[in-house]
Amino acid sequence: METIKLIDDKQTDSDAGKRVHLLQLKYDEMEKWVQSIGQPKFRGKQIFTWLYQDRVNNIADMTNLPQKFREQLAEIATIDTMREVTRQVSTDGTIKWLWELYDGSTIETVLMRHDYGNSVCVSTQVGCRMGCTFCASTLGGLVRNLTGGEVVEQLLNVQRFLDQEAKGERVSSVVLMGSGEPMENYDESMRFIDIANDQNGLKIGARHITISTSGLVPAIKRLADEKRQITLAISLHATRDEIRSALMPINRRWGIAELLDACRYYIAETGRRVSFEYALVGGKNDDLAHARELADLLANIDCHVNLIPVNYVPERNYTRTPKDQIRAFVNELNRLGVNATVRREKGHDIAAACGQLRAEQGKI
Ligand code: SAH
């Protein structure tokens, strides 16, 4: 494990909040916006290409734009609103960034290197207010929503890193699984997805984008109605309401039955299978009786279950399920016809694994 402290005299652009963040605009909005400031529509495409294909850091480098227009743009708009504070590299190749935003808030982003490609985990909120008892992201509560542009910027920064350090390897998939509840910041999360997915943007295929939720039922239905082809992941973690409510306060609002109904609706409307995350928490939800209950609950749902041995969070003292018991749990699910695998943990040594992200310098 290695931590790189960036000795960087670049200051966060504290003015950024007042300027137009170019990464906030969808393609058609960019075309309209350039027209609103007296430019022909095609400048929108030119800017988009500079941002997402050439991935320039500076408006001055957009050399096919007239000099005068570049000067005007530099005054009223900005591309980069966040500063890299630290970059930590795990022994397994996972990299975690801590960014300082223009208002001084901080967030984390993770790059995971798999044999099948590069996957990026983005944050959607500074902090989180869901209150899940096993997760570090919620310890300080919610500070604020991120804008779609701030989520795009996380992704673009990681792609720029790969351009420089990994011979232009591409980000192949994105998960909205960093800090925050993306469904609570619905519009900005969708804005991010639209920009990441745009053919003139970073071209991340919808099926390679996963949005994870603790279970906001109305938002799941709304997403189903939009018929997007993205992957929906549900943080389920328990088979009985009393256990789930103790782990995840949101369950008191929408219980397991209602949540699973929303998932069935999502599958019916989109034709997509759903993923369920199930963190195995020692002694709470991890014996074979729970595996059987889980199989019963999911019997008629087209889904995949990701089992995650609960990750260490220093403020909590949950214990991990022993390896043999994890095996037995997954075998029991498979035996009962449930498609389930144990998620390979990444970045544990740099506190970059599920539930370990937070809005401050990482504690391990
Ligand atoms: N708020 C959304 C997005 C966060 S995704 C959601 O809850 O789905 C982060 C995933 O990591 C969620 O599935 C979350 O339940 C899980 N997680 C949180 N803390 C964890 C921990 N300590 N160990 C393992 N998984 C954890």
From TrEMBL:
Instruction: Enumerate the residues binding S-adenosyl-L-methionine.
Output: 180-181, 212, 235-237, 311
Keyword terms, alphabetized: 4Fe-4S, Cytoplasm, Disulfide bond, Iron, Iron-sulfur, Metal-binding, Methyltransferase, rRNA processing, S-adenosyl-L-methionine, Transferase, tRNA processing
Question: Reaction(s) catalyzed by this protein?
Answer: adenosine(37) in tRNA + 2 reduced [2Fe-2S]-[ferredoxin] + 2 S-adenosyl-L-methionine = 2-methyladenosine(37) in tRNA + 5'-deoxyadenosine + L-methionine + 2 oxidized [2Fe-2S]-[ferredoxin] + S-adenosyl-L-homocysteine; adenosine(2503) in 23S rRNA + 2 reduced [2Fe-2S]-[ferredoxin] + 2 S-adenosyl-L-methionine = 2-methyladenosine(2503) in 23S rRNA + 5'-deoxyadenosine + L-methionine + 2 oxidized [2Fe-2S]-[ferredoxin] + S-adenosyl-L-homocysteine
- Principal location class: cytoplasm
User: A GO term (biological process) for this protein?
Assistant: methylation
- How is the co-factor bound, per the entry? Binds 1 [4Fe-4S] cluster. The cluster is coordinated with 3 cysteines and an exchangeable S-adenosyl-L-methionine.
The family classification in the record reads: Belongs to the radical SAM superfamily. RlmN family.
User: What is the protein name given in its UniProt record?
Assistant: Probable dual-specificity RNA methyltransferase RlmN
Q: Which organism is it from?
A: Tumebacillus lipolyticus
Query: What is the organism lineage in this UniProt record?
Result: Bacteria, Bacillati, Bacillota, Bacilli, Bacillales
